[in-house]
Design a protein that fits this description.
two-stranded antiparallel ribbon, 6 helices, 6% strand
Amino acid sequence: MQTEDPLAGTELTLLLGLAFQLVLGEFVNRVQAAGYTDLRPVHGLVFQALRGPGATGSELAQRLGVTKQAAGQIVDDLERRDYVRRQPHPAGGRRRLIVLTDKALDHLAVAGRILHELETELAARLGDPDLTGLRTDLARLIRQLAGDSIPPLRPVW
């Protein structure tokens, strides 16, 4: 006797939230197992937002969708742990540029490898070699709701 999947009639928001929570949790566990026990998912978002030339505190806050004060607190914490540094802004003035250190870049490389491994495993489980179907559906959903103004993923966890 085959029973119906209890998730079949579940609301979309719950399914999306559960999927996000489970994938993020597995990713975090693997990153911690790789030696990065001092970082949380919000730190990865900060590193992504600072990739390349870096950003000012105001720019970082905008990219993360948080207040300048919240961004400053995160940067202070990451600076104490040598993941970011503040340096003079190329345009001069009182602005400071927040940039990633080699320690953060090393973390990004490890996290990127882990994420690709996890996605490959999920693709094999789902029978979708590169998750094209899932990516397409999620991108369409986001575009329908947000249009061309894709909002930042707010670090609320």
